[in-house]
Specification:
It is a single chain. This protein is mainly alpha-helical and 141 residues long. The chain has five helices and four strands. A two-stranded antiparallel ribbon has the order 1-2. A two-stranded antiparallel ribbon has the order 3-4. The longest helix has 45 residues. The chain is elongated.
Length: 141
């Protein structure tokens, strides 16, 4: 076991799975699953076969988290990751995927705003009712 400190590598500092889990909020199991599922390319290893994540791995994981938090399915995330691994020739397809996902997100945001407005109206209604009851100005409508 290492000390938990980043281990210098040829191109810079690397992070252990524990450090990446702490920074991303993902569990060790989830990080391993993401690798098995092809969401992240095989992570570098030490001679003792311990995972070592580079800055680029962490940046990619953070992007995957944004996709997940915005509702992209694992299947679509896998498709995007596969396209990314294929290189620049897939940029148009990746761009189309992101545009489609962003449009869906915009629709959900509009729906959430409508729902929040409806809830605000209902909260205002009940607050008025309580105020009227406390002050004795309740109307019989």
């Amino acid at each position: 076991m290492t000390s938990g400190q980043p281990v210098p590598a040829g191109r810079g500092t690397t992070l252990t799975i524990a450090q990446v889990a702490e920074r991303t909020g993902l569990s060790h199991d989830t990080l391993r699953y993401y690798e098995r599922a092809g969401l992240i390319q095989r992570v570098g290893r030490t001679t003792g076969n311990q995972r070592r994540y580079e800055a680029a791995d962490l940046a990619w994981l953070e992007f995957l988290l944004r996709l997940r938090e915005t509702g992209m399915s694992i299947a679509d995330m896998q498709r995007f990751a596969t396209l990314r691994a294929q290189g620049d020739a897939t940029v148009p397809e990746r761009l189309a995927m992101l545009r489609e996902h962003r449009a869906g997100l915009a629709d959900r945001i509009r729906a959430l705003r409508r729902n929040a407005h409806t809830l605000d109206d209902k909260i205002d209604h009940y607050e008025r009712l309580l105020h009227e009851r406390r002050t004795g100005t309740e109307e019989r409508t």
